[in-house]
From TrEMBL:
Gene3D superfamilies: Homeodomain-like. The lineage of its organism: Bacteria, Bacillati, Actinomycetota, Actinomycetes, Propionibacteriales. Signal peptide: none annotated. It comes from Ammonicoccus fulvus. Keywords: DNA-binding, Transcription, Transcription regulation. SMART domains: HTH_ARAC. This is AraC family transcriptional regulator. It comes from the Bacteria. It holds the Pfam family AraC_binding_2. Residues 220-322 form the HTH araC/xylS-type domain.
């Protein structure tokens, strides 16, 4: 799948504002006001692939922006340098270098910026809702985000690290985007991190146990579907559909019988397949840990190594060498 890239470089403030509206507010444009300057510089590089959006925005403008709600997306900006302030109702977020701010989704807001360098990462709300249901067991109607700041400084660090990683990944040349597992796992990583980093109801809501029992045959169908299609993109809805039951019911059955979730079970199956491939691979013929991990949807080397050590007690590189 090709990456869509847009680049803008201009000293015309009106052209800069049009470019921002074209990408971020095509239907309900943002309203800008600016302080007169001589030839202010504006530069933006934006990448989009299957819903994952990254952007690096640098400018020397002194400007204020009245922004409509960013409906349908979950994302955040990180100030790398310069000055920025966001105001939403009575909430105000003053940025310094490294500050993370989530874009408001449910009401208009105001942004003031001066000479800023900012990194943006966002994904569709529908993708975040799906991951919330698959991993946290809550419906889209139950999911709500609140507040612009991360839940803690550790969470802010997590989002900064993720943003840097995603920006590097989507900018790197290569054919990794031809593997749908890689792309799906990358998008799910962004969604899951957003749910962990920013205040939302998945962090606090209590989940009632799904009523009814899943028949043994339905559970066997779910397991067989995971085993047979582990090399393909998969959601909880896919597993539940194969089992002939609901997502909540299949989650309850996996917890009861396997003490895990369907998606964690899938991850373990993929780890075992990667383990098998590492054992059979020949490093002298060009086989690499990264290549095998990516084949099974693990795009972040450190996380793959962590999961692998937990499951097999050794590093994946050692398995490959021996």
């Amino acid at each position: 799948m090709p990456i869509e890239t847009q680049k803008v470089a201009t000293t015309d403030p009106d052209a800069a504002f049009r470019a921002l509206n074209d990408i971020y507010a095509p239907e309900r444009p943002m309203s800008f006001s600016k302080t007169p300057q001589r030839a202010p510089h504006f530069e933006m590089t934006a990448n989009q692939i299957d819903g994952i959006h990254t952007a690096r925005i640098r400018h020397t403008l002194n400007a204020r922006c009245l922004t409509p709600p960013f409906e349908g997306v979950v994302g955040a900006g990180i100030l790398l340098s310069g000055r920025m302030q966001w105001t939403r109702g009575s909430e105000q977020l003053r940025f310094s270098a490294g500050t993370v701010g989530r874009f408001p989704m449910n009401e208009a807001w105001e942004a003031d910026a001066s000479g800023m360098d900012c990194a943006v990462l966002r994904v569709p709300l529908t993708s975040v809702e799906r991951v919330a249901e698959e991993y946290a067991g809550i419906t889209s109607a139950q999911l709500r985000f609140d507040g612009m700041s991360p839940v803690s400084e550790a969470a802010a660090v997590q989002w900064r690290d993720l943003t840097a990683y995603i920006h590097r990944t989507v900018s790197a040349p290569g054919d990794q985007w031809d593997n749908p597992l890689v792309l799906g796992q990358l998008a799910d990583l962004v969604c899951a991190t957003a749910l962990a980093v920013f205040p939302n109801t998945s962090l606090s809501i209590s989940h009632p146990t799904a009523p009814g029992e899943v028949a043994p045959a339905a559970l066997r169908r779910a397991v067989a579907f995971i085993e047979d299609h582990a090399d393909q993109p998969m959601t909880l809805s896919d597993i539940a559909g194969a089992a002939g039951t609901t997502g909540r019911a299949v989650q309850s059955a996996f917890r009861r019988h396997y003490d895990t979730t369907p998606m964690a079970y899938l991850r373990q199956v993929r780890l075992e397949r990667a383990h098998r491939d590492l054992q059979a691979a020949d490093p002298t013929a060009g086989a690499t840990v990264a290549g095998i991990a990516a084949r099974w949807g693990f795009t972040k080397a450190a996380r793959f190594t962590e999961f692998y050590r937990q499951s097999f007690g050794v590093s994946p590189s050692r398995t490959l060498r021996t």
